[in-house]
Write a structure and sequence with these properties.
The complex is a heterodimer. Chain A is α+β, with helices and mostly antiparallel strands. In chain A, 22% of the residues lie in helices and 21% in strands. Chain A has a single domain, classed as Phenylacetic acid degradation B (Ubiquitin-like (UB roll), Roll). Chain A has three helices and three strands; from the N terminus they run H-E-E-H-E-H. In chain A, a hairpin with a 6-residue loop joins strand 1 and strand 2. Chain A starts with 5 loop residues before the first helix and ends in a 23-residue tail after the last helix. Chain B has 14 helices and two strands, in the order H-H-H-H-H-H-H-H-H-H-H-E-E-H-H-H. The relative contact order of chain B is 0.11. A two-stranded antiparallel ribbon of chain B has the order 1-2. Chain B is mainly alpha-helical. In chain B, helix 5 packs antiparallel against helix 8 and helix 7 packs parallel to helix 9. Chains A and B meet through helix 1, strand 2 and helix 2 of A and helix 5, helix 8 and helix 14 of B.
Chain lengths: 101, 343
């Protein structure tokens, strides 16, 4: 850990919290919090984000371990998909008599 | 994503008046900055959302840091007036309800601090600004809670006014703030209802208990109206906030909504609202109400309310007394980490 940032050393690290609202559904990001370690983060997440049975399972992830796509790259990163409309079922015309397909 | 993508060292400097920051002469912008500003404006005009990693004007960032951190501080300081009554709640049921409510307020503060941190300010910076008196919090918490009826009235009126203010913020242009507010608003409904119901029960009691409710309403009513902020004509920053999609409804419009919603509730409860000018205006389709004492409001904002010193003193003491706990938790985490590495 760097000695250059003593202030940051006093702050508990930041964690991202993901909650599964019920069995069968995915974990969803719901916010973040500060905690000294993973176990502590789990307990804090329980208190901060699930006071009314909002979840049946919690993940906590150190915020600094998340790699995110950059907003500036949005065009080159996501645009190529927009001209591939043949990937959608609505691209294909099927005779009415076939019914639901 | 709720993480710190930026670093703005002086973002929590609340000592600079809002107007001064917004009215500062803008430095000449480069062509690339002008393009970014253009893209930002287009997104705002289309009612789009801004996320932490997106480019945003410095003044937008500063305004949000100030507003969200002040909001967070208000939730945290707001735990104090009601917290005073936890040990004196009239029954175990009311005590459990009050503990849950005060815990919610703490939770709301935490959601909001996290949202502010996505703008590049740190938790320590924000707390430092609160503890040194640089940052403001809602003035409503600088008044005392004299009787048990105050706890009910805070739920009914103070939280009721807060809900009016907070619902439009669920549509705020800054994503993390809007998402935090959705969570907060879901929980606020319990706060208001528990307060109103506690008062309904008191109003079935003795004459003394009924008088206690009326007295609390008399003391809080005008403070609640002032919670919506200065009249639109005296809020030059509102226009910029509206332009940015941070503020959706004007102070006066929200205040009117609150008055109109509260009058019938007071009638059901059986109390009067302490305003001789309060009456239905058929032509406007709204209630007219009297003059708010803005001098008293500003005096309290500027530190001269009845409880400003006590509230801040309590906060600072709690923070200092908790220092060893925070240090011990970190020391424990580091020790566990070292032991794991060694194994």
């Amino acid at each position: 850990m760097s000695q250059a940032t003593p202030k940051a050393l006093n702050e508990w690290p930041l964690w991202e919290v993901f909650v599964r609202s019920k069995q069968g559904l995915e974990h969803k990001h719901c916010g973040s919090l500060h905690a000294s370690d993973a176990q502590h983060a789990l307990q804090m997440a329980r208190d901060v984000y699930t006071r009314r049975q909002e979840g049946v399972s919690i993940w906590v992830v150190p915020s600094n371990t998340i790699t995110a796509s950059a907003p500036d790259d949005k065009a080159e990163f996501f645009e190529p998909a927009s001209d591939k409309i043949y990937r959608h079922p609505t691209f294909y015309t099927i005779p009415d008599e076939v019914g639901h397909m | 994503m709720y993480t710190q993508s930026f670093n703005v060292p002086d973002a929590t400097d609340a000592s600079v008046p809002q107007g001064a920051q917004l009215k500062a002469v803008a430095k000449p912008v480069s062509a690339s900055e002008a393009a970014l500003q253009e893209a930002f404006d287009v997104r705002i005009d289309a009612d789009g959302r801004i996320e932490p990693q997106d480019w945003m004007p410095e003044a937008y960032r500063k305004t949000l840091v100030r507003q969200i951190s002040q909001h967070a501080h208000s939730e945290i300081v707001g735990m104090l007036p009601e917290g005073n009554w936890i040990s004196r709640a009239p029954s175990l049921k009311r005590k459990a309800i009050l503990i849950a409510k005060v815990q919610d307020e703490g939770g709301h503060g935490l959601y909001l601090y996290s949202a502010a941190e996505t703008l590049g300010t740190s938790r320590d910076q924000m707390l430092d600004a609160l503890h040194t008196g640089k940052a403001k919090y809602s003035s409503i918490f600088n008044y005392p809670t004299l009787t048990w009826a105050d706890v009910g009235v805070i739920g009914w009126l103070v939280d009721g006014a807060a809900i009016m203010n907070q619902i439009p913020l669920c549509r705020c242009s800054y994503g993390p703030y809007a998402r935090a507010m959705v969570r907060v608003c879901k929980e606020e409904s319990f706060h208001q209802r528990q307060g109103y119901e506690a008062l309904l029960v008191m109003m079935t009691g003795t004459a003394e208990q009924k008088a206690m409710v009326q007295d609390a309403v008399n003391r809080w009513w005008w403070k609640c109206l002032a919670m919506f902020g200065p009249p639109d004509a005296d809020s030059p920053n509102s226009v910029q906030g509206m332009r940015w999609g941070i503020k959706r409804i004007s102070n006066d419009d929200l205040r009117q909504k609150f008055v109109d919603a509260t009058v019938p509730q007071a009638k059901v409860l059986g109390v009067t609202l302490p305003d001789p000018d309060l009456k239905w205006n058929e032509a406007r389709g709204h209630h007219d109400y009297g003059q708010i004492d803005w001098d008293e409001f500003w005096a309290t904002v500027n530190g001269h309310g009845p409880c400003n010193k006590e509230r801040l003193g309590t906060r600072v003491k709690a923070w200092n007394d908790g220092q060893w706990v925070r240090d011990a938790a970190l020391a424990h985490a580091r020790k566990q980490h070292t032991m794991k590495e060694a194994a």
